[in-house]
Amino acid sequence: MEILILYLLLGTFVGIVAGLFGVGGGLIIVPALVFIFSSTQLNGPAIPANLVMHIAIGTSLATIMITSLSSMRAHHRHGGVLWPVVVQLTPGIIVGTLIGAAVVNNLPNHTLRIFFGIFELVVAVQMGFGLKASPHRQLPGWFGASAMAVIIGAVSAVVGIGGGTLTVPFLTWCNVNIRQAVATSAACGLPIAMAGTIGFMLTGWGKTELPAWSSGYIYWPAFAGIALASVLFAPLGAKLAHTLPTATLKRYFAIFLALLGLRMLLIG
Question: Could you tell me which residues come within 8 angstroms of residue 243 by beta carbon, excluding any fewer than 6 positions away?
Answer without folding.
Answer: none
